[in-house]
Here is the input.
Amino acid sequence: MLHSAGIEVSDHELDVRGFRYVARTATAGAQATEPIVVLGGSSQDRFSWQRYERVLLTHSSMLTLELPGYGDADPLPVEHGMGFLADAVRHAVDTLSLGPVNVFGACFGASIALRLAQQHPDRVARLMLGGTAEEISPEYVASAHRWRRMVEDGQLDTLARDMVQQFMSPPDHGFVRRRAAVARLMQQRFAHLTERELSMDITHHERLLSHPWSVPAPHVTAPVLVFTGEHDTITPPPVGRRVAEGLGARFATIKDSDHLVQIERDMDLADLMACFFTDQSLDDLSYLNPVEHFAAV
Here is the structure.
């Protein structure tokens, strides 16, 4: 257990159906809303969202996870899909006596978060989904197969450049804040993955190709906000808008950002999370384009 500037942090080793995983809890004593569970995308670990704590811990506690197949957790065979990972999140929430919770999921984490809200609605107070879709796009399927070949051929520098190009929008697509710095950061991250991390990443991509990204039922009962960067080319705004419409959710795009909005506009996204999870208005936030509202079907 660590204590820093009034923040109390603990790591918890947990086990779900024989797979070891790690949960990180952080609190500064605030209780303005239910605990916030953050589920990130591929290649992210329980420390990837640490910079968000200075905003979110003024409102509540946080739980970040290295689920099976992530970080220091046990590798997870590809036959286990999003439903299994959602059960692992529920297991952590129950074991640590946190529920009900606010749930944030970005990219792959959005698929897990949505499944959690469907399978365990009583555990979810509010649901926020970023960079999400109804299904994996043909372009991503082609990229995943290409990345596997690059790993097998040892073309790691080429792999890193290719992944950066896929996850970031083209320079002529629109202005993106911190584009050059984020591109360098992502290039370094992908180029320096360890053999274990590469293996996990490849299994992660195969999991995406082997299991449905989302399922239509049951309906989500919690309030939902879907968002993406206004220049996102992996999960473009029209795709996110369809997800929001299907969920009867609100939909927002964040200005001057693409799929990597959580890095490009981290403090703005943290503020958006805080506003949504504490039921504040989203209508006058300077970093958002006009928020759209869809009625539940």
Remarks:
- The two ends are 46 Å apart (CA to CA).
- Residues 138-206 form one domain.
- DSSP finds ten helices and ten strands in the chain.
